[in-house]
Amino acid sequence: MIIHSKIKDYEVVMENNTDFLNDLCGLKDSQFVIDEKVYRLYSDKFSSIPEDRLILIEAIEHNKIIDTALEICEKMTEIPAKRNATLISVGGGIIQDLTGFVANILYRGIKWIFVPTTLLASSDSCIGGKTSLNYKKYKNLLGTFYPPDTIYVCPIFFDTLSEKDFKSGLGEVIKFNIMAGDTGLTNIENNIDKLLIRDHKIVREFVLSSLEYKSKFIEIDEFDRGERIKLNFAHTFGHAIEVVTNYCIPHGTAVAIGMIMADSISVKRGLLTDEVANRSKQVLLKVIDIDVDLLNVDINDVIKAIRKDKKQTNDSLAAVLLANNKGLSELVIVYDMTIEEVKYSFESFFDDYTNK
Ligand SMILES: NC(=O)c1ccc[n+]([C@@H]2O[C@H](COP(=O)([O-])OP(=O)(O)OC[C@H]3O[C@@H](n4cnc5c(N)ncnc54)[C@H](O)[C@@H]3O)[C@@H](O)[C@H]2O)c1
Ligand SMILES: [Zn+2]
Known about the structure:
Blueprint: E1 2-3, E2 10-14, H1 20-25, E3 30-35, H2 36-41, H3 43-46, E4 54-57, H4 66-76, E5 86-91, H5 93-105, E6 111-116, H6 119-125, E7 130-135, E8 138-145, E9 150-153, H7 163-179, H8 182-196, H9 200-220, H10 235-244, H11 251-268, H12 274-285, H13 299-308, E10 317-325, E11 328-337, H14 339-354
Parallel strand pairs: 2-9, 3-4, 3-5, 5-6, 6-9
Antiparallel strand pairs: 1-2, 7-8, 10-11
Helix pairs in contact: 4-5, 6-7, 6-9, 7-8, 7-11, 8-12, 10-11, 10-13, 11-12, 11-14, 13-14
The structure holds nicotinamide-adenine-dinucleotide and zinc ion.
């Protein structure tokens, strides 16, 4: 699959096994940055990488910072090829955000190959070109747009993902299907149980269809000024849930919760039928698996977190909601969401989750 970009067109290559890593490990003038856990789990696949070309990073938010990015830059200055060097990174969204930033700023941009190893990075974040770093208490405050040159998606990696991280990735996969309307919703309803047991064929199909769906938005509006904003469906709520639970709930799971919250507001506004909202909820509840104590939060903190979100531009609250119009789904950006609506949506999610 080719993704058209104003920065550079780039390719997503689907791989059935890890053989492609043999060629990558032998690539001249390259520097590897690999998620430490992934390196340990797949050490035999990376054994031919010389020590001086390898950086291992623990995939924790605390490492997604400018200091780590600068350390990688410094290490890469030792490669004689300088700006013709290639950065090859292997890991989930944390490694992607960090290395994408490095690849963008070092020598004003170097070649970058990315191998996503989580479901979330493979089905969603690997395309779109966003790079982000955390700064002090601000998550993803610093960032640029810079896509990899090539992305190798290999679903074999998901076999070793924890249940928590796999279900988080499913949250985003379900999101694309719900956004796509009735065909997408029916498709995910019919396949969610196979996805949950990580059926290779089905997982692969859904990764591909998610990327195809997302690519349409980013090709129209790469820099997030119009159409792409719709990809933030449910994210206003999801980000707030991440913040108030101190990031104990992973991104995709928070987005899954956000979708249930968003849909309850849509139903109340008469934008969405009860039937679609309920069907979506039944699928989403299958991937939301959290300690209920995490939800014992002050609703005012949820509202405060929404207000602080970088996507909010004025006093009233904005969100992307789902609507159906004559049987077809569409995403609407609302700018007049009230505090009462947020409270109602959180309380209805809480009831749904505790009674599931
Ligand atoms: N750039 C974007 O467009 C974008 C979009 C969404 C999220 N993000 C960022 O992505 C990050 C979350 O990324 P994520 O959910 O992909 O995961 P992650 O990078 O946070 O990794 C989650 C856990 O999975 C482990 N892991 C990774 N691959 C594994 C494998 N194959 N087997 C076993 N364990 C494995 C990691 O070591 C880590 O413990 C956040 O920092 C978020 O801000 C970026
Ligand atoms: Zn997301």
